[in-house]
Every structure is written in structure tokens, then in C-alpha cells.
Fold these 2 entries.
Entry 1:
Amino acid sequence: MSLTYLLPALLSVHLIALILMAGTTLVDFITLRSFWRLFEKQKEKGSGLLEATASYARMIGIGAALLIFTGIGMMFITHGVFGEQLWFRIKFAFVLLLVANGIFVGRRLGLRLRKTVAETDLTNPNRISQLRKNLYRFHISQLLIFTIIIFLSIFKFN
Ligand code: HEM
């Protein structure tokens, strides 16, 4: 493939990966809201819904890996020209924040949620409501970071 087509090809995969990662994050957020509603009434049905979200983490991981690889690919074929621009530096800081938030906060909260649901009935509402709040904050922060990154990448201000 000639260089003329390589950049748009990488950008296309970059954007598909963005849809995969951000889309799955949004679906995870929406599913979790339904889960909490069900969990309050029928724990078993709620747990079933939670199982359905087990594959989401893999989808988000695949999206993140593709975004990073295609991003690095575009940097490589443009000889790092974007790296000198302010929008890209700020974007990169947000990408790191997104990944760190996902690994250190999201993954930990997800594991804690599954553990809590497996061992708790509705007798410990404080613990559950704190977890619910933290997961809500996590999803909102991830979606906000995605929005900022998309905004920066499209406007490319300097
Ligand atoms: C969550 C992570 C990311 C998101 C949401 C994201 C989003 C986007 C979007 C929406 C564009 C399209 C801009 C346009 O229409 O021209 C873009 C372009 C670009 N991205 Fe990313 N990106 C991410 C990660 C990365 C990473 C990790 C790198 C580099 C290591 C990177 C490098 C680039 C470059 C160089 C372009 C410009 C391509 C061009 O306009 O020719 N991105 N990104």
C-alpha cells in the first residue's frame, strides 16, 4: 500500500477502534444502570445481566490496543510531526489518563462489584451504594475524557 493510502487507512482503523472502545464503555455504563435497577428487586436477574458484561472489558482492551497501535503508526509515517503540536501533547496526556483510569480504577471497581454481588444480599446497602457511586463516577469520567480527546483530535488547535 502506498504512503498516500496508508495514513487514511490507519486513521480509518483508528476511528473504528475509537467506536469500539468508547461505544463499549457507553454500553457498559447503560447496562450497569439496568443492573442496579434489577439488582434492587431480583438479585439473580441482576447477576445474569452482570455476566453479560464480562466480555466488555476484552472489547475495550482490543479497542485501546488498536487505537494505540494505529496512533503510533500514524506518528511513524508522518515522522512525528504531530508530536510537536500542543493539541497532540494534551491529547496524549488524556490518553494516558484514560488508560490509567481504566486499569487502576475501572478494573478494580469491576472486580469488587462482582465479588460484592456474589457474597452480598441486600443487607449491606452502604457498601453497595458507595460502589455504585464510584462506578458511576468512573464511567462519567471515562466518557468525559473520550469527549475531550475527540475534540482535541478534530480541532487540532495550536
Ligand atoms: C482513546 C484514545 C484515542 C482517541 C479517542 C483518539 C481519537 C482520534 C480522532 C477522533 C482522530 C481523528 C481526527 C481527524 O478527524 O482528523 C484522531 C487522529 C489522530 N490520532 Fe488519535 N485517538 C486516540 C489515541 C491516539 C494515540 C495513542 C495516538 C498516538 C500515539 C494517536 C494519534 C493520532 C494522530 C497522529 C492523529 C491524526 C491523524 C491525521 O489527522 O492525519 N491517537 N484520533
Entry 2:
Amino acid sequence: METSVIDDVEINLSQPSDLEVKWVGQEHVKNQLLAAWLVLNDSDVPLTPRLIGLPGVGKTTLAYTTAKELGREIYFIQATMDTRPEDLIISPVIGENQTIRYVASPLVTAMIKGGVLILDEGNRMPEKSWASLAPLLDQRRYVESQLAGITIHAHPNFRMVTTMNTDPSTFELPEYILSRLQPLIELDFPSKEEEKRILKLQVPFADDEIIDMVSAFLSAAHLEEKPFTVRSGIQILRYALKLKKVTGQSQQDCLYQSIDQILGEDALDLI
Ligand SMILES: Nc1ncnc2c1ncn2[C@@H]1O[C@H](COP(=O)(O)OP(=O)(O)O)[C@@H](O)[C@H]1O
Ligand SMILES: [Mg+2]
């Protein structure tokens, strides 16, 4: 296990995450994220943007693929309402002979190694946890571990982004936190052509006919301002094809059943 020593305290580091992901279309949001992370000269600092949009619109995928383009290690934290400050910084574990070992969070590991930290669904964690990151999110670029009694400074290559769903089951964060999570990068529905390419990429064994049907369904949903995203489109497509394989029913019947079971009966009105 990789370790690092800070102020004579040895800490175990976390593992980076490595996923195969691809981004289709919407170059402008990717450029916004790359610009936020860019450092222009020695007196400049990177920004920590907030990626917002409906669940399933592509926020996590955008963060991940853009981070990959930087060619640095990627670390990931899934925020929940139980995420505590020590989960974000350093937590203790009991080692051999009852000694305490310190384990760096993915965030602190990214800070030490100069990686990218994706704090996913950041508005699911409470203000108290965000407060522990306040100095990291401005020019100071450090965090303090109360537990280990040390201050960790971010490597110049450290970058961070947080994603936030625009749905009601989340915390309203205070202004002093939100003002540090800038700029706001808003992810909207892809164009119809892009949506089709995403469906094809994620479900490559689907034929054009059913992809066109799901794409038409998503377009109708966007027009009606329903909160259905390409994630639902991918699930509908997958489930319809599985149903067809098992039941031998027509593609269209399977598609309708799939929509009904995934989004509910009302969604069928969109067809
Ligand atoms: N532009 C895109 N290119 C490729 N895949 C996408 C794109 N947008 C969404 N997806 C796919 O849609 C699904 C939902 O995306 P995700 O990033 O998890 O959404 P969010 O984080 O906003 O909830 C994933 O399977 C993802 O791969
Ligand atoms: Mg996500």
C-alpha cells in the first residue's frame, strides 16, 4: 500500500479509479470544465466548478472523461448525507498491535499526488462536511486534519470538480460554500443527433429502428419538459431488447412495456 509522510505522520493513500468512459457531443461544456481547471501562469490558481443538471443528463460522465483528458489520476468520492469531514480528509483505522493508522481519503490522496478529485453529488452531503473544505476551495489550497493534527497542501496539479443534481432531495448549501464552487457549468439535454449517438454508444447491439423510436420518445419528453434523460433512454432500450429476447413479442410492444415499467404509464402518452 502506498503511503506518504506529512509532518512526521504516516498516512495510507487511496487507490485511483479507472473507468472506461466516452463523451459524445456537447464540446462546449467540456471546454468550460477544461478552462476552469487551466492555470495561466505562476500567479494563477485553478477553479473548482460545480456541474449541475438533472439526474442522468451526463454530469458524472463529463467530469470523468474531462479529467481523463488531463492525463492525471482520477479519484472519486460519492457524497451522501452521511459523508463526514473525516471521510473527506483522513480517517483512523486500528492497525497491528492496537496502533492507529491514518488513511487518506480519495480527496487528500488526489491533493498529495496531483490528481483530479470528482466529488459526485456534492449537494447530498451536509454543510458541516463542506465547511471542512473551505480553505481548499480558495487560494489557500489546503485542508486540516484535526484527527492527525496535520495540514495538507494541494499539489499544483490537483484539480477538483463537484457535480450536483437539480432535484429536491438535496441540501441547500450556504453562500460561502457555493461562492467557492465556481464557475457554474450547466448541463442541458443533448441534441437529438447527440442523444442518438449516446444510445448507440451505450447499447451498441440495438438496431437503428429501436434507437430511432427511443430517440423520438426522448425528444417528445424534452418538448414537454419532463425530467427524463438519456439515462432513462438507455435503460428503456436495454430492457426492451431483453424483453424481446425472452418473450419474442414485437419490438414496439416490448418498447411500450419497457417505458411503462421504467417511467410509468403516464410516460406512454408521449408516444
Ligand atoms: N454526452 C454523453 N456521452 C456519452 N454518454 C453519456 C453522455 N451523456 C450521458 N451519457 C450516459 O448516460 C448515463 C447517465 O449519465 P451520468 O453521467 O451518470 O449522469 P448524471 O451524473 O448527470 O446523473 C450514463 O450511462 C452515461 O454514460
Ligand atoms: Mg452522476
